[in-house]
Amino acid sequence: MIRRDERRRRIEDSFEEFRRAVAAALGNASRELRQLADDRARDMFEVMLRGEGVDRALADPLLAKALRKEAFEQQLARTLIDRVEAFREWSEAGPAQLTALVNAVAPGPASWPPEVWLGRPGTADGSDGVPELWRIGTGVVRGAPEPQSFPVAVPLLDHSHLHVSSVPDSRGAADALVENLLLRLVSYFQPGLVHVHVWDVNQLTGSLPGLYPLTRAGLLTVHDPARLHELLDELSDHIRRVHTGVLVEGHQSVRAVGGRRTEPWRVAVLFGNRQALKEEHQQQLQRVARNGLACGVQLFIVDIPVTVNSPIETVSIAADHTATCTMTGKHVTVELDPQFPQNQVPLACAEIAKKREERRTRLSTFADLLPESLWRESSAAGVVAPVGYDEGEPVHVGLGDTSPHALIGGPSGSGKTNFLYAMLGSLAARYHPDELELYLLDFKEGVSFAQFAPGRKDPTWLPHARLVGVNVNTDREFGVALLRFLADEMRRRADAAKRHEVTKLEQLREEDPEGHWPRIVAVVDEFQYLFGERDQVTQQATQLLEDVARRGRSQGIHLVLSSQDVSGIEGFWGKSAIFEQFTVRIALPKARRVLAEPQNDAAVELPRWHAVVNHESGVRPGNEIARVPDSTGRGTFDRLQAELHARRPAELSEPILFDGSKVPNLHTLPDFQALRPGENPTVLLGQVIDVAGSAAKVRFARTPGRNIAVIGSLPEDAAGVLSGAALSLARQHEPGQATFSLACLAEDAWPYADKLCKQLQNAGHTVELSGLGDIRKLLDSRAARLTAAVKGETGIALDPHYLVVYAVDGAHTLLEKKDDTTRLSGVDSLRTVLKHGPENRTHLLGWWRGPQRLKNSLPPGVYDDIGAWLAFDVQGKELLSFGPEQVMAWSPRPRRGLFFDRFEHSRPQVVIPFDTGEES
Prior knowledge:
Layout: H1 2-50, H2 54-59, H3 61-105, H4 114-117, E1 134-141, E2 150-154, E3 161-166, H5 171-188, E4 194-200, E5 220-223, H6 228-245, H7 254-257, E6 265-271, H8 279-292, E7 297-302, E8 312-317, E9 322-325, E10 329-336, H9 345-361, E11 382-390, E12 393-400, E13 406-409, H10 416-430, E14 436-442, E15 465-470, H11 476-499, H12 505-511, E16 519-525, H13 536-551, E17 557-563, H14 576-579, E18 584-587, E19 610-614, E20 623-627, H15 637-647, E21 656-659, H16 670-673, E22 682-688, E23 695-699, E24 708-711, H17 715-730, E25 739-744, H18 750-762, E26 766-770, H19 775-791, E27 801-806, H20 812-816, H21 826-836, E28 842-848, H22 851-856, E29 868-871, E30 897-901, E31 909-912
Parallel strand pairs: 3-7, 3-8, 4-5, 4-6, 6-7, 13-17, 13-18, 14-15, 14-16, 15-21, 16-17, 24-28, 24-29, 25-26, 25-27, 27-28
Antiparallel strand pairs: 1-2, 1-10, 8-9, 9-10, 11-12, 18-19, 19-20, 22-23, 22-31, 29-30, 30-31
């Protein structure tokens, strides 16, 4: 962009210098002649004042004439000499400089002679810039003593409209000029990037007949002379569509967007008869001219008087077929280039049309979506990537500040997964992982996104993926966790933007170039599961989604939501503030309610492997039909991922993988690996359903209530929690510094208790494993030591002691019997351990097989001694005595527990119990 601006300034400065030289040289003669007349008048006046020679001069007019002629010839000779000197500097270097400048800013067919390029379809796609000048002929300076010719070119695309005026005898020259320029345009760019519209007030056909082969490929349209308003309406609609669908990132023109040209130029050629248009047509033409250049609409106006408030280059053709133009000024005579060979023009147009047809009929592949060079584009203003092709032309999906989020709909089998792979692959190939981060979540039962994380068969992973969630159809909380993470990230970026006094991510990246501010695209497949029930999860998801959808746009956070049947979502469609943010709509075959119904039913008859891409909130004028290539087969996305994985930055970590069908392993958990010996150890109970994959934690401080209860009937769930808790505690104590007492009071729990005992012993710790017969002794002994410590008896030193009891309620009957000596029961000892143990470094981790059984172990109505609990196959209403009202919404599901720490939480969390087997 900077280079183009510099070239433009150079050529403008050069032409301005040229105009000044011409004006100075040619104006010198007129100034000298005026000076001669003034001198002659002054001399005559002085003679008259002196009274000398007046009668003689008046009486001899031949003498006076001779004197005047001689003086004039002398003065004229001096003027010509001055003019030659004035021209000399420019004549020596000016023509060569102008020639070099024109060749620099008008490369290829923009300035070459036709024999070099005519008949060869162009290859330019606009990514390397657009010629700023287009040749029309050669120029010479009028009256120059040594005239030298130089090329004359005019600004066109994106820079200026063209107005051609001719006299009756030069209309043929005007037609030739227009035809030459159009051929240069359509031959420079790839076939399809320039569409020509022709309107002639005088005839239905006949204008520019050599270009008619272009009509076969849809590159030339001839309009009815009585329907100029339809052409102007079409151009106006196109301008509106570009403004609302392309110029959405604050860009002033399509040219400023940069990169490959995605919007073809529309060149409208209007032939008149030197009479003014009707008033309504004139006004509409002025609006098109004023707004068209920014949107790729170029006007060629021939013999129509116009006055437009827009850049316009005027070429005036005289009867001798020479011309003048505003580019060079009135002192330069332009010899227009001859009309291109008429026997070659149709052949050249036919070849261009053929190449266009080949592109339109070619079946695109996944490789066609990928750029020539990987990771070359910037996401500062947004991300744009092709997802398919429409008659050989790419159809893009863009996410940015004004098209922030996308909604994808299509029934099962319509190709949603294939479309998502095409979109993600196209994005990942264009943007470096520092420019783009992906968060991918799939609610349906399947592994559509599992490929993006490392696996046993394929160790590669997509470098852009930071989070991959699969098989989460029963873990709706994970969707809430993702939205909460995005909301937190959005606030972090907003705080940074506020510090730098900016409002958008693009500005923040400019102000803080050393910061890490990539665009974030979060894709949630089958997102309707988030809103499937009337519960707190739906309520939280709706609030978070509305916040992210509304405010995430300016912070570079974009949502892509996909669903089979959008019409069935509750809690979403009633939120217009959410719905209106999803301006990008993508409808797959037979999709419902994604586009604006009932006006837009384009997806109803859509063939397989196609999609409607719409950036205008689903209204029909914004439809683009894309054929989406196969992106899931062997050798497509997998090959791209392998290549990107090999190029990934060395410091880049693997994405977090959350698989709802798998049990998390304790030993591989980062929170477990980070544990070290120290005061106030932390207990890990299971994995929380969050983006970080963190553990549910309880800190065992020396404060009342730091005991843990596991509630539920299944020993497998309870064993996973108790084993994870004990092993995490063991990791925080050196061997011999803590005592672990294990008691198993249920037969079906013995295998789990025995396994934990061996694991603790292997870690070097002292372990006592007792059964039903020893539980009373264990509790009474520990209660006695705690009672003595509470009373302040000397000699009582209590080291860390952890009692892990399986099925506490299994010994309840035995514990209720009172000792004949102390009149205390085993329940009293249990309550003493629960009440006074935590303050004296003794903590109980117990499993109760039901809420009521836990209540029986506690003093009536007093539940504070159990500070943290984790419940499995228990209905929420049974837990109201132990937690907040939010527990009412809990319905048990396999391998999931509800965790609540009354000292840390305001609402309970869903937890997955650990697999405590050895690290694989």
